[in-house]
Amino acid sequence: MKKIYLICTLAVFVGIAAGIAFFLIRDANTKIPSNITLINQNGESYKFGADDSKLKLVEFIYTHCPDICPTTTQKMNVLKQELEKSGVFGKNIEFLTITIDPYRDTPKVLKGYMKGFGISSNQSWLFLTGDRQNIKRDQKSIREIATSLQFQYKDPGNGQFIHTTNTYLVDQNNKFIAKFPMGEKFDKKEVYEKIMNKIN
Q1: Where are the transmembrane segments (predicted)?
Q2: φ, ψ dihedrals at 18, nearest 5°
Q3: Which distant-in-sequence residues (6+ apart) come within 8 Å of 86 by Cβ?
Q4: What are phi and psi of 32, to 5 degrees?
């Protein structure tokens, strides 16, 4: 009986260890496809493989979100100010906010969303959406980006998306570095320190 107990305990331990290893390996190999192109808040093209000089903090949102998305954007805006004080924002790191609702979140709508947070339109914090003329293609592209980072989302039919609650830090080659909680659990100090550690 004791031997069976030990075997069962060992089997459970091995199973847990294998599961942890799987997720660690999966995250370590995660990378945003470099051939994807979306458009930013100014209607300009942004290709993920075009810039290999900066880290990127990636946030997924939709502008009709009632809580966690705007809370995250607000906290990222405060983080941006801290990174500006350190002289690294725009030089060593940029922010990418990607809408999961590109049909409603046009460049004009994204500009309004930015204005609501006092975020100026510049090349260091881009808000990305799909081209209305190619919306189905770009919806697939956004889904591909999200899937590459294990970010999941679904519209149950009422326009209020159910989605994963993580933001992502990726390196100069769009490869996964770390993920952080969204909303109230987004720890600006933790994210700041992770960014600065990767830069220095």
Answers
A1: 5-25
A2: -65, -40
A3: 196
A4: -70, 130
pLDDT (tens digit per residue) in 159-190: 899 999 999 999 999 999 999 999 999 999 99
pTM of the model: 0.84
State the SS3 of the chain.
Answer: CHHHHHHHHHHHHHHHHHHHHHHHHHHHCCECCCCCEEECCCCCEEECCCCCCCEEEEEEECCCCCCHHHHHHHHHHHHHHHHHHCCCECCCEEEEEEECCCCCCCHHHHHHHHHHCCCCCCCCEEEEECCHHHHHHHHHHHHHHHHHCCCCEECCCCCCCEECCEEEEECCCCEEEEEEECHHHCCHHHHHHHHHHHHC
Q: Which tokens go with 175? A: 């490869």
Q: Which segments are annotated as binding site for Cu cation?
A: 65, 69, 163
Residues 61-95 pLDDT 10s: 999 999 999 999 999 999 999 999 999 999 999 99
